[in-house]
Amino acid sequence: MAEHPAYPVGLRLTGRRVVVLGGGQVAQRRLPALVAAGADVLLVSPQATPSVEAMADAGEITWLRRPYQEGDLADAWYALIATSDAEANTRASAEAERHRVWCVRSDDADQATAWTPATGHSEGVTVAVLTTDARGRDPRHTAAIRDAVVEGLRDGTLVAPHHRTRTPGVALVGGGPGDPDLITVRGRRLLGEADVVITDHLGPRDLLAELSPNVEVIDAAKLPYGRFMAQEAINDALIEYARQGKSVVRLKGGDPFVYGRGMEEVQALAEAGIPCTVVPGISSSISVPGAAGIPVTHRGIAHEFTVVSGHIAPDDERSLVDWPSLAKLTGTLVILMGVGTIGKVAETLIAHGKSPDAPVALIQEGTTAGQRRVDATLATVGETVRSEDVKPPAVIVIGEVVNVGPKTAAPRP
Ligand SMILES: C[S@@+](CC[C@H](N)C(=O)[O-])C[C@H]1O[C@@H](n2cnc3c(N)ncnc32)[C@H](O)[C@@H]1O
In Å, how far are 224, 232, 399 from 227, measured between CA atoms? Predict the structure, then answer.
């Protein structure tokens, strides 16, 4: 029998008798799917596990509390033989053979006339993986293939191009801090479904390499914007591609609403009547310190953290940040876009009462292969940025949390 591969088929069991012999772990694992398929399940077994018993109590299956007897399979369309009595299993499978009832045997796949595939479900599809040879059966291998396929369908890394579900309009997707594994499952799936991806220079650039060649990838920084502002050119491009009926993903670094101008794009799309989905992302403000071993809060050390943009220096009249008040906070300060201004920021914080010895860490290109951490104090950070040649993108953390973790960052998984 094992010389030929099994013939795969889907059984439509609604209302049809399925006989299960044995109420142990095998039955416990298989019964829910049989019940979900609408089968009329008869369990024959002197004992059952508590969850099998609960299914009988709930009326989902009929339970005959006795050992297998000749004739039990008479009305069955399909049988699952899984008792702990090898002799009873052999008699039952002989009966199944005589009555031409397909039967699975948990104790001897070679003697069975049917095998149960490793199954999983995703978006209206059942994935079933069968081994081709009973002797070489490796249930972990088939389960691993099933997991890989189902996971791939769920997270969008596996796309069936002719049958994909398309999300109309624009999806504004937070791509996370840079490591391609740190985008959300939903974000990754939408990327896999996109016709056009408009991207920034930050975020998970490695993911773009995985996109199929027919996906148009547009670097937002390179959009021609002539008389217009760059942001208006991006808004126009989003609207134009969506009006062409394309699935558009606007991929941003971190979270779209943390210094990401995400809401400006949402507003422009709403004005143009284009549907827009927002997919949150992991912001660099928390994840980049974490990747370098720095928690933004820690019991007994910091009960608050404040995220600030450093893109405008404190002495610039356009600054909206109340630096004197920030100097008085006892918690953690996280500064984004602050590499160029950190010297002046540090002077201002010290001038308004922050300790010159306050620990500072700068984490450049966090969560990527180029991640680098440089430590300093508030008094030395301006000079350290120059001497260590720290470059954007970097997250700057000020506060005692800098010193609570081990100094050696955990390796990237
Ligand atoms: C325009 S803001 C966008 C922030 C983004 N929306 C977020 O939630 O992470 C860009 C700044 O985020 C920080 N940043 C983003 N990704 C980073 C990374 N992988 N490593 C270090 N800093 C990063 C830097 O401070 C950079 O200048």
Answer: 9, 10, 44
Distance set, CA 89 to CA 28, 93, 107, 115 (Å): 18, 6, 8, 15
Nearest Cα residue to 363 out of 343, 340, 341, 334: 334
3-state secondary structure of 254: strand
| Alpha-carbon gap, residue 217 to 168, rounded angstroms | 18
Give the Cα separation of 218 and 250 in Å (integer). Answer: 10
More confident residue, 5 or 333: 333
- The pLDDT, as a whole number, for residue 221 is 79
Which pLDDT score, from 0 to 100, does residue 1 have? Answer: 46
Q: What domain range includes position 369?
A: 285-403
Question: Is residue 365 within 6 Å of ligand 1 at its C-beta?
Answer: yes
For residue 392, give the ligand 1 atom closest to its CA.
27
Q: Are residues 204 and 252 in the same domain?
A: yes
pLDDT of 163: 52
Quick one: 230 and 293 in the same domain?
no
Among 264, 279, 294, identify where a domain stops. Answer: 279
Which atom of ligand 1 is found nearest the CA of 310? Answer: 25
Same domain, 342 and 395: yes
pLDDT tens string 46-69: 999 999 999 999 999 999 999 999
pTM value?
A: 0.70
Overall number of domains in the chain: 3
Active-site residues: which are they?
200, 222
Q: How far is the CA of 39 from the centre of ligand 1 (A)?
A: 54
Q: Are 228 and 325 members of one domain?
A: no
